[in-house]
Amino acid sequence: MPWLLMYGLSSFIIIHESWFKSDKERSWEPLFEKHYSRPVKAATATDVRTTAQQILKDCNLEGAFWADQPTPDTLNINRFTFWGSTRLTYSIKDQRLKAERQSTPASQAVVRMHFRGGYGQPTFWNQFWGLLVDLACVGIVVWTASGLIMWWRLPRLRAWGALAVGGGVLSFLLLIWRL
Question: Are residues 38 and 112 located together in one domain of the fold?
């Protein structure tokens, strides 16, 4: 039940963004800026991710993150949770590390739950989130399949059920085709 509620509510928020002012730019608050020295290999995405994870550990900010190296002299790290983001910018040439925090309103926290991936991130709780999403998806598929089986076993309701299933499939296909 909580999973369906979260997905339903977050879908509503996504569709009605302007009602929740989610398109409004939120400001970044400075956390720190300091001298920092760490060698960065500019080779592969794996090297960048490994270096970013070490930087987050040094700053006591471990958790889910994305990292990229847009230029040879800059490493960007985005450490995110449901409730906000921390952006770290490491200037390799200047040996400076800058961190900024951006809070997330409750409506956007729910949307982040909708899109959150779990398995590609380093902590147990991210892995656990991924497992729970998988279990919720399996539950929805089993729920749907069992509903179809129960409907088929009630002969006097087959015509109404066929109308409902057919209408649902038809409307879904029409939307997929037109969008």
Answer: yes
